[in-house]
Design brief:
Order of helices and strands: HHHHHHHHHHH
Helix content: 55-70%
Strand content: under 5%
Largest sheet: none
Number of helices: 11
Number of strands: 0
Structural class: mainly alpha
Shape: globular
Length: about 290
Amino acid sequence: MTSHTTPAGPAAGPRAARRRLIRELLLVAGFFTVYKAGRLLSTDRTDEALRNAARVWDAERFLHLPGEGAIQRLLVHGDALVTTANTYYAGVHFPATALFLVWLYVRRPAHYLWTRRVLAGLTGAALALHLSFPLAPPRLLDAARLIDTAQVYGPTVYKAAPAEDTLANQFAAMPSLHFGWALMLALGMIAATSSRWRFLWLLHPLLTLLVIVGTANHYWLDAAVAAVLLGAALLLIPKPRTSEPDPDRGARPGPDRGTGSEPGQDIPVRSLPRPRSAAAAVGAGR
């Protein structure tokens, strides 16, 4: 008689992997849809957003933070430089994060679960702050005397008048998820890889910080708050308890070679082998 712990057959693995992948895609897409819809709830709070912008601007001057205009003046020295910065702001944020998650899902499933949970926590906290503290970016604040580089030089992802923008909330400047996600990408790649060059991933959030400030889309404090919220999420959400084999350096020796475990995964029954595929590991770690 066949034991209930015996796999159903070779076809069960691919089918289960596809189901897990579809569930994961629906989960991420659903969360992102809720986030985007929630942000639009504060698009009509123009006066409040501008008052908050004035407060943030004054707070930065009180703290003697460098003016955002210093970075913008460096960018507008040449059309090519400022256009590149606008393109980076508009075109790198979502694709880079998506590719990062796909790579982790395929190559580092345990780190994928950890990263997805951290990003979800960061994004949820950001949404709550967007709704409770609408904030106009410095390009919309007269006291900042900054130009909207995207409108002047292109390309842009926003309409010139925030009230006419039905696809984006221009009053959700704090915290900056451009910076928060970029910082998590760098930290996630550092944690999931073992290359001696892995700390160069920190150049991505550094470049993102200069871009979001220089294009007048965010204040310095927007990035600082994003970093604090990310730090809180990292403290609350535990990292994977065991390291995964790095394909670039070969599997680590030992009895568990080629396997990995996820946070919260139960100790496996002896007759049931641990999942070996990336998709199977992701399914086991929910």
